[in-house]
TrEMBL record:
Protein name: GNAT family N-acetyltransferase
Source domain of life: Bacteria
Keywords: Acyltransferase, Transferase
Coiled coil feature spans: none
Length: 373
């Protein structure tokens, strides 16, 4: 079922839809906290400007797939419109929710609906996909089955935490001895300034204050100066508060803070989904930068994650070659983008085929020029 751009929903309809999404999220072949109902609802309510379409795949009346998409006016540097999975500024993983065991059926439905949609222009561009995940496997299988054109157009590795070692063993195994010594020295120097305490949010009555503290702390640093902090824009801060509240109610919020004399000097927010978790945002007091509070709270996070039997892995959601987290976490997750041809009838078929061919040709030319350089 293709829903037209996200509409205002009566309370009863919204509740029923959320229940369907929740059942799908629980049975997902690939977990994605950013498309789980609490975060997706918060994003649609506060970040969607009416352009997001929700592509739902069904089988025998059961929801087997959910793909939020937008029509983008450009594809990278090319002035070619295309359909792309919706990844707003605070979404760091783009894998659609697909029911375990129904992966191929879900993608057959997604593509059939897009082929038939009069609004779908160009091709399907899927970003933020795990190269080793269920979505990647289903995309390849269905495209081969349907003899549908598709290409991987970009990939990079980012840090991931996935280990059976406890925190101390992991720390000793994967972090250089010289770095461990320096960080212990910083911990001792920080303790000389006052009482240092690490806390994990567990009391609902503290949630609002913690969210306020995070927004204030993030806005006090370079993100605030550049206008990219969550607190710089009302819709972003509203999304953050709503997502945290909904995730806390669902038992999926993992929020840490490092305090000095009762004042937060570093905070970190993670969102859980299934057996995994996604590192969302970090904020630090830059006035205490000489003590590396961001690294110190990541050490606290390592202990919290490795000490929690319900968290099997955590995706850093960091950029490629991130100097801080790459030095602490040894595992990697390969993130890819795909360009998938769309079909149709008449002028739509011609336009989509031409857009796919032009994008592929432009990419090949760019690679050739880069190789010559």
């Amino acid at each position: 079922m293709d829903m037209a751009a996200h509409p205002a929903r009566p309370d009863g309809q919204a509740s029923a839809q959320r229940a369907r999404w929740s059942l799908l999220a629980q049975a997902a072949a690939e977990h994605n906290a950013f498309y789980a109902p609490d975060m997706l609802d918060a994003a649609l309510d506060h970040l969607d400007e009416g352009s997001v379409r929700l592509i739902e795949a069904e089988a025998d009346g059961v929801l087997i797939g959910l793909l939020p998409v937008i029509v983008a006016p450009r594809h990278g540097r090319l002035p070619i419109g295309c359909v792309t999975n919706w990844m707003h500024d605070h979404c760091f993983f783009g894998a659609p929710l697909i029911r375990r065991g129904a992966e191929l059926a879900a993608y057959r439905s997604f593509l059939a609906q897009l082929d038939a949609a009069p609004w779908a222009t160009g091709f399907l561009h899927l970003q933020g996909i795990d190269a080793a995940g269920a979505n990647a496997a289903a995309i390849e299988a269905v495209c081969v089955e349907q003899r549908r054109g598709w290409r991987e157009v970009h990939r990079y590795d980012r840090a991931m935490l996935r280990s059976d070692l406890d925190a101390e063993r992991y720390w000793e195994t994967h972090v250089r001895a010289k770095k461990r010594k320096e960080l212990r020295r910083l911990q001792k120097r920080l303790a000389d300034l006052g009482a240092v305490e690490q806390r994990l949010l567990s009391d609902a009555s503290e949630l609002e204050a913690w969210c306020t503290a995070f927004l204030t702390l993030e806005a006090s640093g370079w993100k605030g100066r550049e206008g990219t902090a969550l607190g710089c824009h009302p819709q972003d801060s509203a999304f953050f508060r709503a997502a945290c509240a909904a995730a806390f109610d669902a038992g999926r919020l993992h929020m840490l803070r490092l305090d000095l004399d009762g004042r937060a000097i570093a905070m970190l927010v993670n969102f859980r989904h299934g057996p995994g978790a996604f590192s969302f945002k970090i904020a630090i007091d830059e006035a205490l930068g000489r003590f590396s509070p961001g690294v110190l709270i990541e050490i606290a996070n390592l202990h919290a994650v490795q000490g929690d039997p319900q968290i099997a892995w955590m995706d850093s959601c960091a950029a490629a070659d991130h100097p801080m987290i790459d030095s602490l976490w040894a595992e990697r997750r390969t993130i890819v983008q795909y360009r998938i041809a769309l079909r149709g009838a008449g002028a739509a078929r011609w336009q989509r085929g031409a857009a796919f061919a032009i994008a592929n040709a432009a990419e090949a030319a760019a690679r050739h020029l880069k190789g010559q350089g």
